[in-house]
């Protein structure tokens, strides 16, 4: 199985900050990676797919990138509604696996 | 508007069975693969099962293989998850999720249904 390791597990930041979350795959997955945002009591929301493609309706302050087996989600200027938990997910092969999540908290 | 509405969750004892349903609308159901993803209380997301649009191909996580079965009825636009031999560790909110065309990114999710396994 492909393991997805996210870091950090939590981060505190302020409105307007730039934040980066990293996800490392245990083996090559090409660009088969997605990022989701989840707020308490709600279903996850797709933000980024294919490592760097922005899902329709998602603000352009969200972006994704890849370097080898390392993937990055960047929020360029945090807004109040961005404080949530973020998950990466590999779609390269079964079993589909998620990272353990990164909780983005208000400083 | 795409809508996914899960039902069938509830409380059951260890060793019991439940069948979850997910009623889909707003898209051509048979054209898209679907999955079940679960989330234990206070924990992260765990993929459970997937099924192709036609229903011909299925995959299950090792943690549920042999106990859970995913299926679909394209005439009813409904996805199912038959869960047998339930364990306490199966306690979670179960989400159905629609896959995007050609791969297993999930662009729409239901609101989730809670399954509690406890004596």
Please characterize this protein's 3D structure.
- Chain A is mainly beta and 107 residues long.
- In chain A, 0% of the residues lie in helices and 50% in strands.
- Chain A has strands at residues 4-7, 10-13, 19-25, 33-38, 45-49, 53-54, 62-67, 70-75, 85-90, 97-98, 102-106.
- In chain A, strands 2, 4, 5, 6, 9, 10 and 11 form a seven-stranded mixed beta sheet that branches.
- In chain A, a hairpin with a 6-residue loop joins strand 4 and strand 5 (45-49).
- Chain B is mainly β and 119 residues long.
- Chain B is 0% helix and 51% strand.
- Chain B contains no helices and eleven strands.
- In chain B, the strands form two sheets. In chain B, strands 2, 4, 5, 6, 9, 10 and 11 form a seven-stranded mixed beta sheet that branches. Chain B has a four-stranded antiparallel beta sheet with strand order 1-3-8-7, with no helix packed on it.
- In chain B, a hairpin with a 5-residue loop joins strand 4 (34-39) and strand 5 (45-51).
- The interface between A and B is medium-sized, with 22 and 21 residues.
Provide a compact summary of the structure.
The complex is a heterodimer of chains A (107) and B (119). By secondary structure, chain A is mostly beta strands.
Main β sheet profile of chain A: 7 strands, mixed
Principal-axis shape of chain B equals: globular
Please compute the radius of gyration of chain A using only Cα atoms: 13 Å
Q: What pattern of helices and strands is seen along the backbone of chain B? A: EEEEEEEEEEE
Number of strands of chain B: 11
Overall mean pLDDT of chain A: 97
Largest interface (CB < 8 Å): A-B, 22 and 21 residues
Residue share in helix of chain A: under 10%
Index terms:
heterodimer, A: 107 residues, mainly beta, four-stranded antiparallel beta sheet, 50% strand, globular, B: mainly beta
